[in-house]
């Protein structure tokens, strides 16, 4: 961040001897190289070269940055950012009545597409999350995802709808975000045959699945409630939410890591999609269409 607190992004390599600037420190809003003390602004300009005045107009590559809704967005494209780049996706909770109770960053040892498909699938909950949030859930005769213009989808322009019979709205926002709003009949309780809009209390979730490297994802998780604002200030509440998030994720990872191993062996995870796979199918077709120009259901791990 510069002297005014505005975020910037520069290449992690000093223009002098290619030392990683991330090993240095912020000095008055400039990143200082730990090797020889050269300093760079957030736009990449070098403004100080201690012990020498031989070099002028030195800079490192910098990328456009926008900070919004508590997140820092970096534009890595080779061309100039779109003119409307200031008006992109809003990922804040859907109203002032919501209070953010947890913001967690986790590293997950699976490919981000597989994690996305797991988050976009609610039908697995009564079988997988039996010791966490879905403990005691009955198994419905039919689970379906109905595509509608729910409040979350209208807010961000994504593909959204309602999980039936659960009171849960969910939206996929390209390229790697899942938003969900869960209606709670009582604090912490979900009841079938109730729509989220009919509930007085709601839990709002944002999952951002950032590709980190092959077979690894950096997961950003934000959780908000439109009730119990006092709970945010309780002792150890952050540790409580982080522990719960890790428990839920752990229940999923056992299965998703197994899928990943099978996919690397050439097996196809989309052999027989059914009605409740609709949102995951939409995501996968979008993904392969962008990545390969072919909107198929084949996962990237099985494409030559």
UniProtKB/TrEMBL annotation:
Q: Entry's PROSITE patterns?
A: RIESKE (PS51296)
The record's annotation in Gene3D superfamilies points to: Naphthalene 1,2-dioxygenase Alpha Subunit, Chain A, domain 1 (3.90.380.10), Rieske [2Fe-2S] iron-sulphur domain (2.102.10.10)
UniProt-listed SUPFAM superfamilies:
Bet v1-like, ISP domain
Record-annotated Rieske domain positions: 1-74
Q: Which domain of life is it from?
A: Eukaryota
One Pfam family of this chain: PaO
Where the protein is mainly located, per its record? Answer: plastid
Give the GO cellular component terms, alphabetically. Answer: chloroplast
Localization? Plastid, Chloroplast
What are the protein's UniProt keywords?
Answer: 2Fe-2S, Chloroplast, Iron, Iron-sulfur, Metal-binding, Plastid, Transit peptide
GO molecular function ontology, one term from the record: metal ion binding
Record keyword Plastid present = yes
PANTHER family from the entry? Answer: CHLOROPHYLLIDE A OXYGENASE, CHLOROPLASTIC (PTHR21266:SF19), IRON-SULFUR DOMAIN CONTAINING PROTEIN (PTHR21266)
Q: What is this protein called?
A: Chlorophyllide a oxygenase
| Species in which this protein is naturally found | Prasinoderma coloniale
């Amino acid at each position: 961040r510069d002297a005014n607190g505005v975020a910037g992004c520069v290449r992690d390599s000093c223009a002098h001897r290619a030392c990683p600037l991330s090993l240095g420190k912020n000095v008055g809003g400039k990143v200082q190289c730990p090797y020889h003390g050269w300093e760079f602004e957030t736009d990449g300009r070098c403004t100080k070269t201690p012990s020498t005045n031989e070099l002028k107009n030195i800079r490192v590559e910098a990328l456009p940055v926008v900070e919004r809704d508590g997140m820092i967005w970096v534009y890595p494209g080779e061309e100039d950012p779109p003119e409307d780049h200031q008006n992109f996706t809003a990922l804040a909770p859907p109203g002032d009545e919501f209070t953010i109770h947890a913001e967690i960053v986790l590293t997950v040892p699976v490919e981000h597409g597989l994690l996305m498909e797991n988050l976009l699938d609610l039908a697995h909950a009564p079988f997988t999350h039996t010791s966490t949030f879905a403990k005691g859930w009955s198994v419905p005769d039919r689970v379906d995802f109905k595509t509608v213009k729910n409040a979350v989808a209208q807010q961000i322009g994504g593909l959204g709808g309602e999980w039936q019979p659960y009171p849960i709205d969910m939206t996929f926002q390209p390229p790697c975000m899942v938003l969900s709003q869960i209606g709670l009949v009582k604090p912490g309780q979900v009841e079938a045959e109730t729509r989220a809009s009919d509930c007085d209390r709601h839990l709002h979730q944002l999952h951002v699945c950032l590709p980190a490297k092959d077979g690894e994802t950096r997961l950003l998780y934000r959780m908000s409630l439109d009730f119990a604002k006092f709970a945010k200030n309780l002792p150890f509440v952050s540790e409580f939410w982080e522990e719960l998030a890790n428990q839920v994720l752990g229940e999923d990872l056992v299965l998703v890591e197994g899928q990943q191993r099978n996919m690397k062996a050439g097996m196809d995870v989309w052999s027989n999609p059914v009605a409740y796979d609709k949102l995951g199918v939409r995501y996968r077709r979008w993904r392969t269409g962008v990545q390969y120009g072919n909107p198929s259901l084949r996962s990237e791990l099985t494409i030559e």
